[in-house]
Amino acid sequence: MAIFVERKKINDMKLIIRDNSAAGSLWAAHHIADAINRKAAKSNEPFVLGLCTGSTPIETYKELIRMVKAGEVSFKNVISFNMDEYVGLPESHPESYHSFMHKYLFDQIDEPAQNIHILNGNAADPAAECEAYEKAIEAAGGFDLFLGGIGEDGHIAFNEPFSPLTSRTRVVTLTEDTRIVNSRFFDNDPNKVPKQAMSVGVATVTSSREVVILAFGPKKARAIKDAVEGPYSHMCTVSALQNHQNGIIVCDEASCGELKLNSYRYFKAVEAAENI
Ligand code: PGA
């Protein structure tokens, strides 16, 4: 037992590998709900949660919505900050991240409207907007948990390759690759995808007390390989998690497809030993 408790304290980067995205999404939703409930059980302080958009988190959000409706978790004392928003896209545009978040999460849970924060991609002074966002995160007490996805190029939030691992919230230019990938939401026309976004920085994410990254499907396999086995590098910004005390990547078998067998076995063995 003593050994078990000792092992539980090991806080290196972890890979939680599930058979498929459905199982991974359930694991993530329950992990987030547990974290919210654990904090609520011991303090009245709000739970500060970082949130992401994209195809990947939708199933996790569905399960969180189910849990809220079933009374298994509440977002009444959750303060959330989203990781990014396109610059210049009206908030009411169906592909804005404001629209996405309301559709897939906020309209169906009990988080108070004043606790929801999403960068204003139409701010008159974008630099001031980004600076104020960082200050608001700090004033809320810093992130307890940051939920993110990753891009095929290993980006975390819109921190494309070559974003400093020390970066903070700022205006970023999207790469051609990301605009091509995201064009599926813009009539398959990369020219309709905004060229810039506001994004939390890599360091904004890694300063969270816990980071949970979702990566499902074969298209994320290269990013997972680079994140886990590659160097700690601005070439793959999610590799910043290698230096995090409490970083978890939730994968499925397909997104682990390019890992070395020994890496795969290592993370499976760590999970079995720690029983997380
Ligand atoms: P996706 O996007 O969930 O739609 O794959 C993730 C990302 O680009 O960060």
Write a short abstract of this structure.
The chain is an alpha/beta fold. Helix content is 36%, strand content 16%.
What's the topology here?
Blueprint (H helix, E strand, L loop, with lengths): L1 H7 L5 E5 L2 H22 L4 E5 L6 H12 L8 E5 L1 E3 L10 H8 L11 E2 L8 H14 L5 E5 L20 E4 L2 H7 L13 E4 L2 H5 L4 E5 L5 H9 L17 E6 L8 H14 L2
Parallel strand pairs: 1-10, 2-3, 2-6, 3-5, 6-9, 9-10
Antiparallel strand pairs: 4-8, 7-8
Helix pairs in contact: 2-3
Q: What spatial form do the alpha-carbon principal axes imply?
A: globular
Instruction: Count every helix, treating DSSP H or I runs of 4 or more residues as helices.
Output: 9
Q: What percent strand?
A: 15-25%
Order of helices and strands: HEHEHEEHEHEEHEHEHEH
Helical content (DSSP H or I, runs of 4+)? 25-40%
Query: Which whole number gives the mean pLDDT?
Result: 95
First CA to last CA: what distance?
A: 15 Å
Largest sheet: number of strands, sense, barrel closure: 7 strands, parallel
**Rg measurement, Å:** 18 Å
Unreliable stretches: 1-7
Tell me the number of strands. Answer: 10
Numbering strands along the chain, what is their spatial order in the largest sheet? Answer: 1-10-9-6-2-3-5
**Sheet/helix structural class:** alpha/beta
Compounds present? 2-phosphoglycolic acid
Overview of the structural elements:
The protein has 276 residues and is an alpha/beta fold. Strands 1-10-9-6-2-3-5 form a 7-stranded parallel β-sheet. It has a 3-stranded antiparallel β-sheet with strand order 4-8-7. The radius of gyration is 18 Å and the shape is globular. The site of 2-phosphoglycolic acid has 6 residues, from loops.
